[in-house]
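pinging the channel bc i need a second pair of eyes. not urgent but kinda urgent?? the chain im working w is below, pasted from the shared doc
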Amino acid sequence: MFCAYFFVPLSRIFKALIVKKSVIIRLLLCIVGLVTLGACANIGSPEGGPRDYTPPALVSANPLPGALNVKGNKVTLRFDEYIQLKDQMKKVVVSPVQKESPIIRSVGKKITVEFRDSMKPNTTYVVDFTNAIEDNNEGNVLEGFSYAFSTGDEIDTLQISGIVLRANDLEPMQHTLVGLHSNLSDSAFTHLPLDRISRTNDRGEFTIRNLKPGSYHVFALNDVDGDYRMNNSEDMAFNDHVFVPSTRQFQSVDTIFTFDKRVDSVYTATHTEFLPNDVLLSLFNEDKKQSYLAKTQRLDEKRLWVKLSTRADSLPHLQILEPSEHAADWCRIERRPDNDSIIYWLTDSALIKTDSIKATLTYLKTDSLKQLTPATDTLTFAVRRTNAQIKEAAQKVKDEENYQKDLQRARDRIAKAIADGKEPSQEDSIMVAADEKHRFQLLPKIKIELAPASLGITDSISFTTDVPLLSISSTGIHLEQARDTLWIPVDNVPQPQPADEYGLLRYTVPLALTPGQKYRFTIDSLALRSVYNTMNHTTESREFLVRGPEEYANLFFNVPALADSAVVQLLDGSDRVVREAPIRGSEAEFLNVEPGTYYARLFIDSNGNGLWDTGDYSLHRQPEYVFYYNKKLNLRKNWDVDETWDIYAVPLNLQKPDDIKKNRPEKKKNALEPEQKKKPGEEDEEDEFNSRGFGNNIYSGNKYSDSRNSRTR
């Protein structure tokens, strides 16, 4: 309309310009007219329609869903829009278990499934896509889609649902294989492929569909070797309960909403609930890894390294064969607590100087029957040097030889000058006088690293060395405390001791320090002597401040109704253990905690050993139970925090805070409203009715969706 109004006046102006023949005015008005017409032409590109929030929908299938007496071996599914299969290998499973995996393709709006195994008679086949199907444009996911047909006169319709959580940290196990056996013997899981299978979704939930009436054991399995049966090295879960699938009819008042969330209609509907829908499977590894010699290496002239594939209850025995002449006490041993990594520090000079050492190692090895039996391997430890290292060592030898020749010439010239009654040259005198210092510098020296300048209230003075020590001079260790501007020696400073029984290089001074005080710790030169008869050449000293109790927070947990012993673990933002404390009575306390954000985990210590213990299928022993405190803990300086923790108040699958959860659900792309983000510093509101859960100690299939939806309403 804008252009229409302006076109007629412009034409009249042009006619007037032609009559007047005013070239300048005509030119200016032509430019204005062209700009105006250009604006009229560029009205704007047409906008697309509203965003697509709906997932793909199945419009046809051959054979039809639920079809009976199917004879062919190919399935075709057509959808109402272009689709793609995402993570097909992880998410799509076919039941019953196939010896040869079906060929599954997606092209355009179509998915084809071609079975390569012979079709069994009177069998219900299920292709479970979980959430692998999504549209091409917006990525809207078709949740929980499965397709079933039967080669017989009936189709099985029962279901079992539940959730798989990792036993030691309650992580939801995504895309994990879940299956069942109608054979209820213990050996079925270890010797026979699973009867029917499914996979968990990105929340760890599973549904095994189209089951026959009967009794079943249910399992989860990280099936590394693809044989659909358990071996000792694979993560697995079992439930000793015998599950009998069934259905229940119930009615509910349902509401239909419009697209803008206004009520369209209300009606009473009848639903079918498939039971059980609350199966909990706790995934664990039996930690029965095969034991074998993983690696050996001579790290340098002084160190031999042995690496075993897994933990060992006892140290392997290393015996030197060549050179045969060596000291009985030829090494010092540094090891890890699990004895799976051992460093032998050579202390015999004959062994150190030998480029190649031959030895035998006797250790416990897993045999063909999967039993630990003694085994002996013959090993060769050779020093490996790069070309650059060889050249550098040769150059050092050459430089030293040249130095000694120059030194001898200087001594000869000094002797001749004295014999001739002359004054030796100043250059020769300086060189000879500096020789003692030169020889001292050539001696290997112990390197020392002292404790940091700020110590925690419970920390000890410590230092580390680069080689094992033989002795520490009691007169060469000094500790002083600051008093005003003076340093006052601390009396009766104990001798430094190894920090633990496993390492050789870290030492601590077992002395209680006064919080809030400043200290100075000094190690004199030549105070430390190593097993190689080397010493520290310089004095090392450091001042440090011990922080006071006002710099820390204290945390107290009251955990009622615990029949067994338990341990509470304080976690950082990466779900790593920072501190742990046993529950005494009903309380666990954490004193002098660094201020910051923490989380908490509890495990039932059934055997009282203070460690979380895994399960054992052969013994029908479940892993020790784990619980999470479902809130984060903000600890501040000089604060005491008291928390009451009912470990059964929140459903297990909702206990672990999302902030430290690693296996998080995929973000949905079809949300109609943006996620409401908390403002900085805004805390989570208390939910006294636990509206986000679906009941205490309940782990269900369909109810998971109810709980999840209630959190997004």
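so The first helix runs from residue 2 to 20. and Confidence is low (pLDDT under 50) at residues 1-25, 34-45, 670-675, 680-713. — does that match what u expected or am i reading it wrong
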